[in-house]
Specification:
The chain is an alpha/beta fold. It has one domain (10-37, 104-422): Metallo-dependent phosphatases (Purple Acid Phosphatase, chain A, domain 2, 4-Layer Sandwich). It has 8 helices and 24 strands. It has helices spanning 133-140, 144-147, 151-155, 188-193, 211-223, 255-271, 293-304, 392-407; strands at 10-12, 16-21, 24-29, 33-35, 49-55, 64-69, 91-96, 108-120, 159-164, 198-200, 228-229, 233-239, 242-250, 276-282, 309-313, 321-324, 327-330, 335-338, 348-359, 362-363, 368-375, 388-389, 413-414, 420-422. A 9-stranded mixed sheet has the order 7-6-5-12-13-14-15-17-16. Strands 8, 9, 10, 11, 18, 19, 20, 21 and 22 form a 9-stranded mixed sheet that branches. A two-stranded antiparallel sheet has the order 1-4. Helix 6 runs parallel beside helix 7. The structure holds zinc ion. The site of zinc ion has 6 residues, from loops. Residues 38-78 have a biased composition (Polar residues). Residues 112-340 form the Capsule synthesis protein CapA domain. Belongs to the CapA family. This is CapA family protein. Residues 1-35 form the signal peptide.
Length: 423
């Protein structure tokens, strides 16, 4: 029912894991190249740019959507490769979905956010041609295949946010790194068909085919009206009359530059009267189940400066959840629809869901949280790039893992049904 409308110096530290499957070596890349921001990104603070995505509607069926791309107010920053002739000027698009009344006169507004981890729509061109993401896309001939199993979950929320890890580009100048990801611009449909409403785009793979590939990807987000947050570019997504502001930083670039992006992003979003602010943070160490000092520092900093939720990624595996002050930190959402690895050894992942409740426009202190255990693949022996909710013992095992990882971070733990039971 919901469709969204809108709105190097490199440190190479790579690991290679090989898997022997059916007699063929499958190279399983994990993202491990840490790129520093390039000239286009520098000095975030003064120049945050915000895109606004508005999706009005209220009750479950009211769907009047409106999209406004606003050029940022005071600090007009020219964005690379913007829509024809509109660069600095505001562009407004309005789209109306089937409207209906939402006249429940309640002063309570509930906003449910679903968050999932790394979505790499594409592959490394060196990955095994018979089983990589490109092959699957060609085989299925249908972008809906990929998120089919989780769409029923994403469809029922008010906004789904994932980490977009890779590029959408036709460029052939692959960055000199062990793993570089790219996909065709049309792959963005995978997210749109899967009811994903927004992406974070600040990570160590968003320039895998050069700065141009970063711009190409953003151009595609804009063209396809996919709200995104990326370094100094913040975004606002509107639903049920509330503004959800988003900031995305890459902590691998350094804690202090990320703090600057967070601080300036939050400042900007508050000025724009965001009702809720989510900070996405790409940080930590791959394949570790415990957050490192940088993750903690950045997450706490974001909440100290007004973030209502911090979503982490980069370790590729699950980490724990912490309650800090009255907000939550999900340190690592793991992989999700991940074309970066043809067979990750740890396929456990989750969808984190939180419902924020507003009473008379004021955000109430609630703890309505649920984790939905999933696998990155609907096949256990290989990655078929189709994340799937886990059931039975497998689901229990994933919840227990999250509980175990959360233990050292505080009191957060989840019951068998995935609902939070202590915090
Ligand atoms: Zn990463």
């Amino acid at each position: 029912m919901r469709k969204k409308i809108t709105q190097n110096k490199k440190t190479v530290l790579t690991r290679l894991t090989s898997f022997l499957i059916a007699g063929s070596i499958i190279v399983a890349p994990i993202c491990a190249v840490h790129a520093t921001p390039t000239a286009t990104q520098k000095n975030s603070s003064a120049s945050t740019k915000t895109t606004q995505t508005i999706r009005k509607g209220s009750s479950t069926s009211a769907k009047t959507a409106q999209t406004t791309h606003k050029g940022s107010s005071a600090s007009a920053k020219t964005t690379p490769a913007v829509k024809k002739g509109s660069s600095a000027s505001a562009k407004t698009t309005q789209t109306t979905k089937k409207s209906s009344q939402a006249s429940s006169k309640s002063s309570l507004t509930k906003i449910t956010i679903s968050a999932a981890g790394d979505c790499t729509l594409g592959s490394d061109i060196k990955s095994p041609a018979s089983v990589n993401f490109y092959a699957k896309y060609r085989e299925k001939k249908n972008p809906s295949y990929f998120l089919k199993k989780v769409k029923p979950i994403f469809k029922r929320d008010d906004m789904t946010l994932v980490n977009f890890e890779g590029t959408l580009t036709n460029r052939t100048t692959r960055a000199p790194k062990t793993f570089a990801f790219k996909g065709n611009a049309s792959y963005l449909k995978i997210l749109q068909k899967g009811s994903v409403e927004s992406v974070s785009f600040a990570n160590n793979h968003c320039r895998d085919y050069g700065v141009g590939s970063y711009r190409d990807t953003i151009k595609t987000f804009r063209k396809q009206k996919m709200p995104f947050a990326s370094y100094g570019k913040t975004t606002i997504y509107k639903t049920k009359g509330k503004k959800i502001g988003m900031v995305a930083v890459n902590g691998l670039d350094g804690v202090s530059s990320s703090k600057n992006y967070i601080k300036s992003g939050l400042h900007k979003l508050k000025k724009q009267k965001a009702d809720l602010i989510i900070v996405s943070m790409h940080c930590g160490i791959e394949r570790t189940y415990t957050p490192n000092a940088d993750q903690k520092t950045l997450a706490h900093y974001a909440i100290d400066h007004g973030a209502n939720l911090v979503l982490g990624h980069h370790p590729h595996v699950l980490q724990g959840i912490e309650k800090y002050k009255s907000a939550y930190i999900v340190y690592s959402l793991a992989n999700f629809c991940f074309g970066g690895n043809t067979n990750p050894p740890d396929k456990d992942t989750m969808i984190y869901q939180q419902t924020f409740v507003f009473q008379n426009d004021k955000l109430k202190k609630t703890n309505r949280i649920k984790i939905i255990p999933c696998s990155v693949s609907s096949s256990s022996g290989i990655n078929n790039y189709q994340p799937t909710p886990a059931t039975g013992k497998k689901a229990t095992k994933i919840i227990q893992r999250v509980n175990r990882y959360s233990k050292s971070l505080g009191k957060v733990s989840f019951g068998k049904n995935g609902k939070i039971r202590s915090y």
